[in-house]
Amino acid sequence: MRTTNLYAPTLRETPAEAEVRSHQLMLRAGMIRKAAGGLYTYLPLAWRTIKKIEQIIREEMDEAGGQEISMPIVQPAEIWQESGRWSVYGDEMFRVRDRHGRQFCLGPTHEEMVTTLVRDEVRSYKQLPLMLYQIQNKYRDEIRPRFGLMRGREFIMKDLYSFDKDEEGMNLSYQKMYDAYTRIYTRMGLDFRPVEADNGAIGGGHSHEFTVLAAAGESNIAYCDSCDYAASDEKAELNVIRALEEEAKPLEKVATPDAHTIELVAECLNLPLEKCIKAVAFQTDTDELVLAFVRGDHEVNDVKVINLIEGAIELRMADEAVIEAAGGCPGFMSPIGIKEGTRIVVDQTVMEMYNACAGANEKDMHYINVNPKRDFKDVVVADIRMVKAGDICPRCGGTIKMTRGIEAGQVFTLGTKYSKALGATFLDENGREQPMVMGCYGIGVGRTMAAAVEQNNDENGIIWPKAIAPFEVVVVPVNAKNEEQLQLAESIYAELKKAGVDVLLDDRKDRAGVKFKDADLIGYPLRITVGPKAVAEDVVELKIRRSGETVTAGKADAVQKALEILAGL
């Protein structure tokens, strides 16, 4: 490919709409263009990278036993209604009607579609295990699409679905995919971590997110500094923190005028936050009141809370009138005095506190000498707090640290959630009908590309890992109007192509500085410069984008030197 034939309209200025580095750089590097909020056109450079990512994915999916198919993007409402998820996705789902008034959706995911496909074809345990995958567009009407390809309304996803005869088989399929994902992100040259995660609306059992570490990531990742434990902040397991045992004192009510936050309470009573109990009130999508209590220096993890409530889909902050109807007082709450039958969830660490402070469910009043094991009745005790740096690792006792990352892929065990709902069964060895046991495994292809940029850039532009760079090498004649320079550049370009290198020749007649800036902005791993020295002194320069290191070689050795450098990248 020659730059004079390449459609890559680079920009010198950063578009005002672009907030994160990947969005800014992909716009500036002529890789993507916005069509509407959350909708982007991939230009040739980006599409080359997309295809390389897809090729790595395909190779690893095939190696792990996956078979590629292509399912419809437009899906009938009936199968979603059958699974019970037609209402779960809510406004995030693009819904359409055909000319006959029948309802369809643009697929945000394909669990229903693939399950109904398999249920109509697979009859016997002899046809299992089965792993089917596709790479295609998905559609989700994000309330606030942002950050370019990070959160869009239309995006490319690889989704694979496994079908097994039992849980043991599902776990084997899960491990195959976990290992395949590890190889995929390793081959792409990305710094990543598989972290334990919540399944969310997908449902099912356990899950890992494959998270590309980057400061701009939306995911908060907790990881141990002593072992390989890592989890999203929503999922991170936490040990009970046991306070030093004290002799329980009598419960006492005290005035705390205008102390409606936990910080003001602690200040008013001259107590450390870890001696106070914080309350957060939620309502579920069915309007049930849920009162959650954590230690004053901790935060409530609403994902953990909702996972304790069977059938609940989402939580919102509770209305004051609802709290008051249950006997509570906003800003001054505790489980003491709440009406019987109210759902109260208390963090396990709170139950280990002695002589603590908590609301008295009366304006401007709190209790002191609260001993939860003595004073809290009819409560659910569970781990419901958010992880924070300095917590103890639940696996090895090491220290938890926090970082940020971008979820680029996720693996789930689904169990029989969809097969039971949709009637996907098989006959086992004894002729008995059994539901298939499923897993699902997704990779955001465009999101992975954006994550790679977030992780690999500097003040000059993108620094592509070799495996997914749009071109591995760019050959730049300093003066393309100079016949000798251009011919030598052409010769090096042709030899690299013959050697199987993905190479671009920048044959534009622009100034050298313009071409060098574009090369750095776009992020080709290796730049070969053919200038006056190449003609006069037999010196060709090779610059490694990541390190900035420049090496020289003679004209006859330039291609071999380039191959050696590429082999080490």
Descriptive account of the structure:
The chain has 569 residues and is an alpha+beta fold. It has 3 domains: 18-70 and 106-236 and 401-454, Bira Bifunctional Protein, Domain 2 (BirA Bifunctional Protein, domain 2, 2-Layer Sandwich); 252-382, YbaK protein (Alpha-Beta Complex), CATH 3.90.960.10; 471-568, Anticodon-binding domain (Rossmann fold, 3-Layer(aba) Sandwich), CATH 3.40.50. 26% of the residues lie in helices and 29% in strands. It has 15 helices and 31 strands. Strands 3, 7, 8, 9, 10, 11, 12, 21 and 24 form a 9-stranded mixed β-sheet that branches. Strands 16-14-15-17-20 form a 5-stranded mixed β-sheet. The protein has a 5-stranded mixed β-sheet with strand order 28-27-29-30-31, with helices on both faces. A hairpin with a 5-residue loop joins strand 22 (425-427) and strand 23 (433-435). Helix 1 (21-28) crosses helix 11, helix 2 packs antiparallel against helix 5 and helix 2 (44-63) packs across helix 11. The chain is globular, with a radius of gyration of 29 Å. The model has no long low-confidence stretch (mean pLDDT 95). It holds the Pfam family tRNA_edit. Its EC number is 6.1.1.15.
